[in-house]
Amino acid sequence: MNRTALVTGASSGIGRATAAALVTRGYRVLGTSRTPGALPAGRRLAGVDYLPLDLADESSVEALAAGAGDVDVLVNNAGESHSGPFEELPADDLRRLFQVNVLGPVRLTQLLLPGMRERRYGRVVMVGSMLASFPLSYRSSYVATKAALKGFSNAARHELSPFGVWLTTVEPGSINTGISERRTKHIAADSPHREDFETMLAALDRNEKAGTGPDQVAAVIVKAIEATRPRQRYAVGSNAPIVFALRRVVPLSLAEKLTHRRHDLRR
Q: Can you tell me which family this protein belongs to (predicted)?
């Protein structure tokens, strides 16, 4: 195996599990962290070269692309979680979220694509979320960023597949990665949405703690990478095969109702 894979956000969760899985498959693996030098020894994976990346800083994205060399596989995993009532989302935080979750990964992909195209081989995996297919109240900002990533991937794959470069999206459902503790929350002290918001968050945290492990998501990412013709979308966790099959046959209003009931919201 002479392929080089770059996995963003490789210090924890899905990114770390994916980097580990790719090492065992024989890839040369580059993993990113905001501050690689500060990573404890226990979080460093053998066989992974760690590089700095701050997706909120475009110069950091460009420096990573320039320093990584030839990259055959890009896994855009790094991102931030965000929750809050739509009418209360701060504009500055929205801009940052879109920079980190969408514009940064898109720019990194743009910078690495020419090399993939010239070598006639490439795989780009966008790590999205099942919430982009099943939107949830109080997650509108996060849902919008994951839907945007999927939109870029779905359209651009048609441009690049003639060159042997395939883009795909992996949509995890409820995954037990500890992200609940790192989620940014916005809620006004006197918000009329507070009761429902807190109900949703409690259910979200509960579902994630009981969710699929990151190793299972990593296995699906590797499957997408190594497919001859990767599918447009892969989903994992939260009974994805059943849920997506049901969505094709039940009314949209029922799908919405079931999504909200899973999070203890009555609509």
A: Belongs to the short-chain dehydrogenases/reductases (SDR) family.
